[in-house]
Fold this sequence. Notes:
The chain is α+β, with helices and mostly antiparallel strands. The chain has three helices and four strands, in the order ββαβααβ. Strands 2-1-4-3 form a four-stranded antiparallel β-sheet.
Amino acid sequence: MLVTFTTEAYADITMFGEHALPLLKMMGHSGTVPSAIRAEDVPIALSLLKAAIEAQKATAPSVKKQSDEPVVSMANRSLPLINLLTAAAKAGKHVAWK
């Protein structure tokens, strides 16, 4: 499954569901797809996501590679979504995903 995040303040972002759903939960959302966050709730979701990512960085064990593919941390995967949420919060726009 693919999840596409949209807002009027930023370009759309598409992620695989296996990465998007945990990020939604970090934002304090149930993980329901499709859904949305009202403009006034975007700053709260952004702060929850940033706090969860920082907490995960602090407690993340070292990851052993099992293949030749690089390991991408959740902190790196969250950057596009953090940028989208930041732009939406600044512009006072809602964020939706489907």
